[in-house]
Write a structure and sequence with these properties.
Layout lengths: L11 E3 L4 H7 L3 E6 L6 H11 L10 H9 L7 E7 L1 H7 L3 H18 L3 E7 L9
Parallel strand pairs: 1-4, 2-3, 3-4
Helix pairs in contact: 3-5
Family: Belongs to the barstar family.
Organism: Deinococcus terrestris
Protein name: Barstar family protein
Length: about 130
């Protein structure tokens, strides 16, 4: 299997086994955003605030999220976001999911234009779609 960090980021990818260890070995800064408690846009923005260690000045809207993800002063050159329980979130939040995905993919493209890398890695922890 190809190591995800040896390739350019390509959309939202399945997280590899032991993503934290792999990221460290490839000099990729990795932060985790946990979607297990996300029920609405406010809790989604709070998950990013916590996961990315943002300050309370974070605007908690789509534009603010895009800005923090694409700011070369705020993010390392090689950066990964581990999206924990992402598939379950997408199942629960059928309206919210596409907006978030658009912001994440637009940010990934902008970061690439800057000559930097933003991996978006979906990690599932015991997700069973039949449980929803």
């Amino acid at each position: 299997m190809i190591n995800v960090f040896q390739e350019s980021p390509q959309g939202i990818q399945t997280a590899p086994h032991d993503p934290r260890i792999l990221a460290a070995g490839h000099q990729v800064a990795l932060r985790e955003v946990n979607f297990s408690e996300v029920r609405d846009k406010d809790s989604l923005m709070l998950a990013f605030l916590r996961g990315l260690a943002l300050t309370e000045s974070f605007g908690r809207n789509w534009d603010a999220l895009y800005d923090v993800l694409t700011d070369p002063e705020a993010r390392p050159e090689r950066f990964a976001i581990l999206l924990t329980d992402y598939a379950a979130f997408r199942t629960r939040q059928r309206q919210l999911g596409p907006y978030l995905e658009g912001v994440l993919l637009d940010a990934q493209a902008e970061v690439a234009r800057q000559g930097r890398s933003l991996w978006l890695l979906a990690e599932e922890t015991g997700y069973d779609p039949r449980a929803w």
